UniProtKB/TrEMBL annotation:
Entry-linked SMART domains: REC
Alphabetical list of InterPro entries matching this protein: Bact_response_regulator, CheY-like_superfamily, Sig_transdc_resp-reg_receiver
Protein name: Chemotaxis protein CheY
Superkingdom of the organism of origin: Bacteria
Modified residues (4-aspartylphosphate): 59
SUPFAM superfamilies: CheY-like
UniProt GO BP: phosphorelay signal transduction system
UniProt KW Transcription regulation keyword: yes
Keywords per UniProt: Phosphoprotein, Transcription, Transcription regulation
Keyword Transcription regulation: yes
One Pfam family from the record: Response_reg
Amino acid sequence: MSLTKQTIKILIVDDQTTSRLLMRDALQQIGFANIPFAKDGEEALKMMMSSPAHIVVSDYNMPKLNGLQLLQAIRTYPATRITPFILLTGSGDREVLQRAVKLGVNNYLPKPVQPAALQKAIQAVTGNLA
């Protein structure tokens, strides 16, 4: 089965409800339909272990597991090792971004996320989807 915007599953991970809803709305405007969310990295990791998403879009600054810890955990499991991971960060902290790159992040975006930037980041990791 080839992936389309209707079948691809994008997991949103953010501890702020408003941010999760804004991201979901932006993804729906782009045409995606399967958009579960997790309120923190720990919940996201459990979700990825039981029913992996095709793409993870995660905030950096969260309780329990932050975005980098989640990325590192996802990269250690064979079933999720190559899952595209887009990191969202409110800080322009170069050290965070350098650590993310070392851990294998696929893309990153500054918060607040603009729908057009999100679409470009997803296209960068998936190519053009129908």
